[in-house]
């Protein structure tokens, strides 16, 4: 796919060929990350996918990860998302009784730490391995600008974009080619689960009540936001 204004940028096919080897993949379960996995696999990469968990133990996420492991024939490593520690230490939806615990929660900044945890899980080192993400220029103006300024290979961060120039048709064809489905998230939210506001919680409560209760175990006062939407704002939904 040729994208206007980015004709000078190295095509993703060439990027995948140049960096072919054993590489990490940040796998959010989203369509872009899934397409990146497929493209890397088809290009001969040894893909090591890892999923950054925002709320541990949610059944619908565990089931989708198990599905992709079966379809792709590769174990998906799970590590905590840095937002989990940030939310807890920031007292998001936390009761007063948890103050001491929340304030002592260590923070994990964005950076190489997720690679270190993945390496520990595999008993291997990833000092020189590249990390792939599913960022596509056509996805948003921000991502278009990201590709235009930084390109698809970032030597400083050790990251690359294996499908940066793919469009919606290429994504859809790759899924059909491998007879693979998007997660249930897209039925509920049109995207993967990554928030704690009522926009995510109301559909979760209705479709997966057990998982909703698990979220409340981590964030007990979350229902205050539900109350705001359903009663104070009189929406009863989104």
Written account of the structure:
This protein has a six-stranded mixed β-sheet. α10 (198-207) packs across α11 (209-218). It is 46% helix and 10% strand. The model has no long low-confidence stretch (mean pLDDT 88). With 238 residues, it is of the alpha/beta class. It has helices at 12-18, 31-42, 59-72, 82-89, 99-103, 113-122, 141-150, 168-177, 185-188, 198-207, 209-218, 223-232, and strands spanning 22-26, 46-53, 77-80, 131-132, 153-154, 159-160. It starts with 11 loop residues before the first helix and ends in a 6-residue tail after the last helix. The chain has twelve helices and six strands. The protein has two domains: 12-188, HUPs (Rossmann fold, 3-Layer(aba) Sandwich); 195-238, no CATH class.
Task: Identify the notable features of this structure and list them briefly.
238 residues, alpha/beta, Rossmann fold
How would you summarize this macromolecular structure in one to three sentences?
The chain has 238 residues and is α/β, with parallel strands linked by helices. Helix content is 46%, strand content 10%.
């Amino acid at each position: 796919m040729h994208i206007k204004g980015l004709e000078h940028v190295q095509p993703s096919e060439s990027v995948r060929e140049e960096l072919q080897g054993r590489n990490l993949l940040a796998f959010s379960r989203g369509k872009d990350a899934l397409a990146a996995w497929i493209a890397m696999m088809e290009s001969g990469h040894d893909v090591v996918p890892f999923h950054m968990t925002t709320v541990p133990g949610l059944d619908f996420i565990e089931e989708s990860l198990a599905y992709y492991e079966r379809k792709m024939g590769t174990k998906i490593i799970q590590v905590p998302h840095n937002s989990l520690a940030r939310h807890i230490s920031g007292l998001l939806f936390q009761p007063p009784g948890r103050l001491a615990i929340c304030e002592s929660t260590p923070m994990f900044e964005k950076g190489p730490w997720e690679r270190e945890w993945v390496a520990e899980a595999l008993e291997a080192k990833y000092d020189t391995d590249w990390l792939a993400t599913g960022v596509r220029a056509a996805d948003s103006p921000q991502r278009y600008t990201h590709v235009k300024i930084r390109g698809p290979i970032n030597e400083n961060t050790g990251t690359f974009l294996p499908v940066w120039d793919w469009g919606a048709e290429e994504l859809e064809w790759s899924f059909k080619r491998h007879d693979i489905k998007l997660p249930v998230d897209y039925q509920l939210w049109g995207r993967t689960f990554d928030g704690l506001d009522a926009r995510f919680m109301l559909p979760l409560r209705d479709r997966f009540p057990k998982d909703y209760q698990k979220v409340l175990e981590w964030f007990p006062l979350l229902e205050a936001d539900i109350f705001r939407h359903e009663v104070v704002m009189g929406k009863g939904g989104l």
